[in-house]
Each structure stands twice: as C-alpha cells, then as structure tokens.
Amino acid sequence: MAWVYLIGAGLCEVFGVTMMNRLNERRSFANFALLAAGFILSFLLLSLAMRDLPMGTAYAVWTGIGAAGGAVVGMLFFGESRSVLRILCITLVLGAAVGLKALG
Q: Which residues cross the membrane (predicted)?
C-alpha cells in the first residue's frame, strides 16, 4: 500500500505544479485553492508512504514522479519543448525511480 500512496503523492505533486502554472497564467482563488490542495494531499500521501518505505527512496521516487510528470504536462498542455534530448532525460529520471524500487 505504501507504493500506492507514493505514486498518488507524486501525481498530486504534478497536479500542484500544473496548478502553479495555471495560477501564474490567471490569478484566481480557485486556482490557488487547487494548487494548495494538490500540495497538501501530496505531502499527506508522502508521509503515509514513508511509514513503510525508507525516507531516501520515498523522497527520490516522489521527486522523480513530480519532476518527470511536470515536464510531461508542460510538453503536452503548455507548449514546452518536446526535444529528443529532453524526453531522454525524463526517461532517465523515471528509470532511476524504478531502479530504486527494484533495489529497495
């Protein structure tokens, strides 16, 4: 169950970052509330995951999901660069997270 919490935490992190970008585009209370909700839920789920997973592994995987997910959302929805090198780097981040789980 800890891994489910951790993946959920990473996805909430991606949502929070996405809402941060939306808030920068259009300031509104709704965007701010969604940003706060995303990050609060992300930290809550991360803390639940860390009850059973080592801190270093949990934090690295959470950060990897957030970083890679934020980059992918930026490419898909906000017109950011889709260069092959950028996609390769995102793949490396995700591969490292999978490697930590495999070794953990």
A: 29-50, 56-78, 85-103
Structural domains in the chain (count): 1
Tell the residue number behind the tokens 């709704």, with chain if given.
30
> In this predicted model, what pLDDT tens digit does every residue of 17-72 receive, in sequence order?
999 999 999 999 999 999 999 999 999 999 999 999 999 889 989 999 999 999 99
Give the CA count within 13 Å in the CB-facing half-sphere of 89.
10
Distance set, CA 80 to CA 61, 76, 87, 93 (Å): 23, 8, 12, 18
pTM recorded for the entire structure = 0.88
Burial 51-73 (b: 16+ CB within 10 A, else e): eebeeebbebbbebbbbbbbbbb
* Domain span at 52: 1-103
User: How far is Cα of residue 83 from the mean position of the Cα atoms in its chain?
Assistant: 21
SS3 70: helix
Amino acid at 22: R
